[in-house]
Amino acid sequence: MGDWLALSDLTLPEGDHSVLEQGLFVCEAALPLGTGTVLLEWHQDDGTMRTFSVFADPQAGIVILHRNGQMMRRHVLPGPLPFGLGTARISYGWNRRTGGWRLSFGRIGMGEECICAGTGPIALSPHELAGLCRRDGAALRHGSLLWFGVTQGERPPERAPWLGLRTPVETARGPVAAGCLRPGDLVHTADNGLQPVLRINRLRLPSRGSFAPVILRAPYLGQGSDVLLSADQLVVLSGAEVEYMFGVEEVLARADALANGTIGRSDGRQAAIDCVAVDLGLPELLLVDGLKLLSHGVRAEPPRPVLLAFEAQQLVSLMARRSLFGAA
User: Fold this and answer.
1) Within 10 A of 244 (CB to CB), how many other CB atoms are there?
2) Is 189 in the same domain as 114?
3) How many C-alpha atoms does 109 have within 13 Å on its Cβ side?
4) Are 176 and 55 contained in the same domain?
5) Do 38 and 180 share a domain, yes or no?
6) Is residue 32, in this structure, part of any structural domain at all?
7) Distance (Å, rounded) from C-alpha 104 to C-alpha 92?
8) Under DSSP, is residue 76 helix (H, G, I), strand (E, B) or coil?
9) Is residue 19 in a domain?
10) Residues 143 and 181 in one domain
11) How far is CA 309 from CA 257, 304, 312, 314, in A?
12) Which of 124, 151, 178 is the last residue before a domain boundary?
């Protein structure tokens, strides 16, 4: 699960009422929102009344309502807030050791963050997290709510490059689904032949909003089937357009730069996803069903030039024009 304790639609064991001394609740929602939107609301009365809800309004602001028996807290980030177009992220953190809480709102990629803080939070428990995440409608979720999760860090875990479990990686014994790879397996690389897998990092991550993965569609980049991977996974691009624009045979670009609707598309069908990161130590180009994807591991100089966002957009625009007349 990485650094996430709970994620939307994740089944968790119930009954543990011990509180989390420190935690961070994070959710993302599609904007714009209407007036007085209840993004998330969960109630339970099993002898002790429990409530956790998230309310958003462009003028009134953000309200987190948390009740546990006789204790009730109402944490408010007052408006007006920038509820324009985009994806909003709301974060509510608590720390019982310091007795403080922090509530923030911002739009992804806009460089903005509205914050307020106070004292006297009620900590969430694993039992409450299980109720929030259940898929049976125990918690009411607004249609604009993309996903939510809870971590014990002070900030949300960063996005990490990953491969879908079914992604076929070329190995010494033929194509193997990424989810079936094990340390010690020999995988084919573009530059250095067979290399051993040092570590397989198994992750459960959000897969909507700013964490939405990308499906690269066959056969536009030469692959035999659609491939699911994270938005920040680096992919090798080649061809006449690459040589024309950059004077080299191959470059690396983030997968989200390819999500133009033709070569690839964003996939937000589920709130959370199981995936893997293949670590070969130094960065190598994995051979994946006709694609070359950068492996994970230590931070080192990639083996190909990495395009900036605007460079990748221009290149993909040229490639998309060619795709109108047939696959590459």
Assistant:
1) 10
2) no
3) 8
4) no
5) no
6) yes
7) 7
8) strand
9) yes
10) no
11) 7, 16, 5, 9
12) 151
Concatenated DSSP letters for 120-173?
Answer: -PPPP-HHHHHHHH-SSSSEEE-TTEEEEEEESSSSPPPP---EETT-EEEETT
Place of tokens 């694993």: 126
**CATH number for 308:** 2.170.16.10
Whole-number Å distance between alpha carbons of 78 and 238: 50
Model-level pTM? 0.84
- pLDDT tens string 266-305: 998 888 899 999 999 989 999 999 999 999 876 778 999 9
- Measured distance CA(209)–CA(10) in Å, rounded: 17
Q: What values do phi and psi take at 13, rounded to 5?
A: -70, 140
Closest alpha carbon to 8 in 33, 42, 36, 35:
42
- What 3-state DSSP class applies to 230? coil
Range of the domain at 142: 4-151
Residue 319: predicted pLDDT: 83
The answer for residues whose C-beta is within 8 angstroms of residue 294's C-beta and 6 or more apart is 161, 233, 234, 235, 236, 252, 283, 284, 285, 286, 302, 303
Residues 61 and 186 in one domain: no
Task: In whole angstroms, give the CA distance from residue 96 to residue 105.
Answer: 22
Return the biggest CA–CA distance within the chain: 70
- The whole-number pLDDT of residue 324 equals 53
Cβ neighbours of residue 93 closer than 8 Å, sequence gap 6 or more: 22, 23, 24, 25, 101, 102, 103, 154
Tokens of 186: 């020999």
Q: Would you place residue 176 in the very low, low, confident or very high pLDDT band (cuts 50, 70, 90)? A: very high
Does residue 154 surpass a pLDDT of 50? yes
